[in-house]
Amino acid sequence: MRVAFINIDDTLGGASIACVRLAETLEKKGLDVTIFTQKKNTEKNIVQAISEKWWLKKITFLNFLIERTYFFFYEKDKSVRFSFSPSISGIDITKYVDLKTFDIIHLHWTNFGFLSNTSIKRIFDLNIPIVWTMHDMWLMTGGCHHSGDCLNFQTGCGECEQYLKRPSTSDLSFRLNQVKFELFKKKKNIHIVGCSEWISNRARKSKVLGNLKITTIPNPLNQRVFFPINKENAKESMALEEKKTYILFSAMKVSVSWKGYGYLKESLEILYMGCNKKEAEGIEVLIVGEAAPESKHDFRFKTHILGRINDPDKLNTIYNTADIFVSSSIQENLPNTLIEALACGTPCAAFNIGGIPEIIDHKKNGFLAKYKSSESLAEGIQWVLRNNDDKQLSLNAREKVNKFFSEDVVAKKYLELYNSVLECRS
Predict the structure, then answer these.
(1) Mean pLDDT of 198-212
(2) Are 322 and 329 in contact (CB under 8 A)?
(3) Are strands 2-6 and 302-307 parallel, antiparallel or unpaired?
(4) What is the value of pTM for the model shown?
(5) CA–CA separation, 92 vs 138, rounded Å?
(6) Confidence band, pLDDT 50/70/90 cuts, at residue 290
(7) 102/35 Cα distance (integer angstroms)
(8) Strand, helix or coil for residue 222
(9) Which in 3, 139, 245, 344 has the greatest CB count within 10 A?
(10) Across-strand partners of 221?
(11) Measured at the alpha carbon of residue 85, what is the angle toward residues 108 and 182, in degrees to the nearest 5?
(12) How confident is the model at residue 426 (pLDDT cuts 50, 70, 90)?
């Protein structure tokens, strides 16, 4: 079976990481998988840029600029600039890749000027079975990647107060949602996959995707890459103090609004205020991701800014140095970071939002805090730090990954899906 994965690139963001992991997992099971990307950043043989021609790279960058410039005139403010993708400009991938030689086309994250709605229609018109994994809500909305508390995607969007400066019943979100509705409504050989049951349920209620077949399959994790190691050795390799307690936070870019960095700061301030001097001196914070150097002054606990880490071995070491991994995200699907942390035996604390409750079992492998409550998140951090002396939370964390997110478990579900898709075609 030949499967063409299509994703914007092979490293940038959780969707790209999940896409590559799934492709490699399926390749181990004997499938012929190729990931076609706008840009190739790694040396992985499974990844192929759609073209190495210099002029095409210029065009792809121009498409990104066109998309951002177009949305500039509609955006509510600059904080939402990269949270809404109109998908009006992109590459016609069918001109550069012979997709007709594949049995299945598996789409992932295609925004930021990579594929436009017109590009997607040309893929659909090939009449090859399509599987599309939703890494966020974009596929069912009028352009936003996460709708938060807004449920307008159920009726076709419009009145987009969260992202648009002039919301109305016929605003940009309504018009773009209608384009997607028309794109999908007559297609019968498309199967949608949600990484979490939460996002699958949202898709089932949406105007765009509600009549399509929708399955929930989580992202896989290679437990030979993320696994427990000796904590003292991990700390030593990171030049960290053995007797200190470490709180880990990670985001590709900490300033992205839905990562909830403000809630993290508030919760750690509450935690600090509840500590005596000796306790406060014994706790330090680790930040992985793009953050300004001055961010180390955001907390009263000593803070280490580690920057972006693409080396899986180093990431594994960092997870193992931590006594807890904290997510303050206020919008999430199924974050890789939480699964990675649990695989390393590091319990987590996070808001009870999106697909996170499908990862964290409250007070078994971590703590689910009340949505947008810094007080509750601080309580969760404190609870985890005080209740893992016997390492039972760590054992439960590892067991959770074994049962639900291992390569074998996820690969079996995708193979069943692919076979059923091909059977429907014949």
Answers:
(1) 97
(2) no
(3) unpaired
(4) 0.92
(5) 20
(6) confident
(7) 12
(8) coil
(9) 344
(10) 406
(11) 75
(12) low
